[in-house]
Amino acid sequence: MKKFIAIAMIAAFASSAAMAGAECKAQPKDKWQKEADFQKKLTADGYKIKKFKVSGNCYEIYGTNKDGKKVEIYFDPVSGAPAKTNIEN
């Protein structure tokens, strides 16, 4: 039974780590780009944003890119650089 519990705990940890978001460096909020301005920039770059949120120290979007592929992207809110990108194949 102990072996089963240990295996279940390892599996749960592994699946939660795989689903974890990006790690963006903690920075003062007054240095972050304004959400509305950042969304406008992404839209100008061809993204269609279905959902935009703050996720930890990152901006996160769900939507489509200029090629129409579904995306989930985490961005550094100061530099605007992608921290983690998931694009539908």
How would you describe this protein?
It holds the Pfam family PepSY_2. It comes from Vogesella aquatica. Residues 1-20 form the signal peptide. This protein is of the alpha+beta class. The chain has one domain: Nuclear Transport Factor 2, Chain: A, CATH 3.10.450. Helix content is 30%, strand content 30%. It has helices at 2-18, 35-44; strands spanning 48-55, 58-64, 70-75, 82-87. A hairpin with a 5-residue loop joins strand 2 and strand 3. 11% of the residues are buried. The model is unreliable at 11-19 (pLDDT under 50).
Point out poorly predicted stretches. Answer: 11-19
CATH level 1 class label? Alpha Beta
Quick one: overall form? globular
Sketch the major β-sheet. Answer: 4 strands, antiparallel
Q: At the third CATH level, what is the topology name?
A: Nuclear Transport Factor 2, Chain: A
Question: β content, as a range?
Answer: 25-35%
Elements, N to C (H/E): HHEEEE
What's the architecture, going by CATH?
Roll
Tell me the number of helical segments per DSSP (H or I, 4 or more residues long): 2
Mean pLDDT: 85
Q: End-to-end span in angstroms? A: 41 Å
Helix content: 25-40%
Protein name: PepSY domain-containing protein
Keywords: Signal
Domain PepSY: 5-85
InterPro entries: PepSY (IPR025711)
